[in-house]
Amino acid sequence: MSIKINNSVLVTLEQNLEGELHYSDLMKRLYATDASVYRMLPLAVAFPKSNSDIKKLVAFATKNKTSLIPRTAGTSLAGQCVGSGIVVDVSKYFTKIININETNQTVTVQPGVVRDELNNHLKPFGLFFGPNTSTSNRCMIGGMVGNNSSGTTSIRYGVTRDKVLELKTILSDGSEAVFSELSQEALQSKTKLKTLEGKIYSTVVSELSSEETRDEIKNNFPKPEIHRRNTGYAIDELINTTEVFNLCKLLSGSEGTLAFTTEITLKLDKLPASQSIMVAAHFNTINACLEAVEPVMQHNLFTCEMMDKTILDCTKNNKTQTENRQFIQGDPQAILMCEVKGETLENVQIQANKLIQTLENTGLSYANISLLNKEIDKANELRKAGLGLLGNIIGDKKAVACIEDTAVALPDLANYISEFTTLMEGHKQDAVYYAHAGAGEIHLRPILNLKKDEDVVLFRKITTDVATLVKKYNGSFSGEHGDGIVRAEFIKFMIGDKNYQLLKRIKSVFDPENIFNPGKIVDAFPMDKNLRYQVDRVEPEIETLLDFSASQGILREAEKCNGSGDCRKLPEFGGTMCPSYRATRDEKDTTRARANALREYLTNSDKANKFDHEELKQVFDLCLSCKACSSECPSSVDVATLKAEFQYQYQKVNGTSLRTKLFAYNNKLNTIGSKLPSLTNFMFSNGFTSSILKNSMGVATERSLPLISSKSLYKEYQNIKNETVGNKFIKTIYFFNDEFTNHLDTSIGVDAITLLQALNYEVKLINNSESGRSFMSKGLLDEAKKVANKNIDIYKNLISEETPLVGIEPSAILAFRGEYLKLVDDKVSAKAIAKNTFLIEEFLSNEIAIGNIKPSQFTSEEKTIKFHGHCHQKAESNQIHSFNVLNLPKNYKVTIIPSGCCGMAGSFGYEKEHYKVSMQIGEQTLFPAVRKASPETTIAANGTSCRHQIKDGTQRTALHPITILKEALL
After folding, report:
1. Does the CA dihedral 623-140-26-557 come out positive or negative?
2. pTM of this prediction?
3. The pLDDT of residue 722
4. Which of 175, 263, 482, 702 lies at a CB distance of 3.0 to 4.6 Å from 147, suitable for a disulfide?
């Protein structure tokens, strides 16, 4: 279809757009994949700002015989966002909520509005948009319309198609058309228009007027009671309309193949009842779970969802999801999550009791657990994370999306799954079951290695066999994830040749030049070509300094990213990942982009050092190494560690800048500065001298420089004696004197030792090495390895359960539990030390829990505290420990600021080119929360960088929790 288009033509297009056009190698690689198994390098990536831009793109595609692939969050599982034309990403600029009509309960939005963002906006009006996908905190309304998404609430609120009232579009000739509900009279008027819009109406009406055609559709499309059905274009919906006619039914689920949507008007529902109970029914077999679906659906359920053992087991190793597993009893093969809602708790309890009685009467479940409030949220988060968590399967075999979207009528569900299981056993497959069970849709995934030809063959064979089985039950092969590439070529088989030819004619009248997302729905790309991995390739051997053996190498660590896009969630949805994306809203600055870029270049580079690419430097540039991805990404892709290795390898070839060395060796510089601290601090704080220093070092002039303590902690400790409060010490602890506490935050170190001794702990501080955090963050891994090896050697015979290692600075002490395990030579000793290494709040919280520390030891005065936690604490420990410690004095009222990353991230916030982004990150949640706090409120933060950022951004001084607790001692 396409002709050769050179960059000069793209330059001209770029100059004519209000928005952006990118055609660099990096951007094309980042947009070559979505959340599916497919990969196609696009010609370019466009970020249109206006309808005029889209019209220009349409004209360009027509003239140059290329195509436009619409994209929002890029979380499609079937390959809808993959193509060789121009990817048109509307997620950056088409993000307006245009109008809310409270009376009619409608809203008009642009396609780049995030679903959960919309509902937050609608909440004050008592309204919401019902369809609710597992990606709802980053998926966008345009993508939901394109896929006809549904999600957990479809059994109550229907699917997206049911909610679309009007679509403003740009057609393939560049004209604008508004599709909405039409009376028969208005419809006839439309068919007479001498425009492309008129031709579309005329053709569709003419095609569907034949009784023979209507019968063909009724006899071959999925059963109408299956409300999740996306097989091809929804012509079966159009023949059911008599008095009114709305082509939005057809456009919903059309995957951007018919027109380009610029505005969407949706029907809203009133907010659901506030009280709810979820019954989590546990089953010993999949079949027992599925047999229970039909009886429980006799109740008025809000949701009815299923997870199997494979997904539950995946959550065991994910830090974030471990908390959400608390309701699980035993080792179930499947859990059915049934939610009921009502206006009063009493009413909901009655419903739940009846539901449990039904379950007990079936005798199918072995436990029926009732969940309330936050317990429901945790269970839902566990289920939502399910798809992404499947990426945690180590190695090349993965749970592959191909047959994961099938839906059948509820009476057929148990028999269908029974036959499906037999079919899969024939292929020697243990399938993964992840289901919207109440809607008859099961997300079934075979485990395949698509790097190997034999599994690619099996990929097609399994998909073909399941299509045949779905056809037997007159089900839908595409329930809510769309046809895309993976299922489109089966549409003809599913609905028959006559219906398929009708779909082709509809596509032809809408898009005669085939510029809109070709290869999807009709004239499909082959489902086993254009895969993410080259089949039977020689696997690249990548040598690294860090140990990536847990993921079978650095390349497979990057390949763990399946594109689910959790890193695109916005600050209002909590968590920390990904702070740079939250600031720029650019795909390039997501966790996903970094993993994808590394995979691309490590796989395809011809260089001796495959890391030696400027593109990788660009994509890692705004990574703050916050580590949120290691815990919040369902696939636990550890981009902070990937970045450290990249920097190390890149600098081997390209050298290390002076500024990088200055930041990396800051402990040595601080040691020198501490010899004359008054002079050093004058140089750092005086306007003239500090400006010279900042300009010479590439530090932002707006940033203040940290001051050196008058005496190091190690020297202070020499004058501190351990004395028991009672007969003997409760415990002996080794206090890790990190480089930040030793030279910059000495007073906090003294507070910590004073507090611990007052609580009757013996504190030992030895002359350990620095943590190596600065070396790690700057990619000087040889130096970091030396430091780590030295510290492990120092502590290996000292640290045990009875004598733990405790530290103040999260980024330093938690290195023993993180990077050291990938750095050091003596891994046995490192693992033993890691088990008994604690952030100081973590240690104290544990001691409080076992009764060694009591509120009676502290003041009864009142104090209000707002706490901001360090990113590494959130990723590798838990903020609850700081919360527990600060709450120990009985009249202290503590709240955790839901702040994500502060934006400082060590040296990142100092660097002049990063200062603006650093402050943007701080402004997302942290700075406003601090400014909003009254002057009497104490601001607490346990990270040295965090306290510095708060001071620079709000002029408020934040205290370490340990200082606050020490001051509260009686």
Report:
1. positive
2. 0.93
3. 76
4. 482
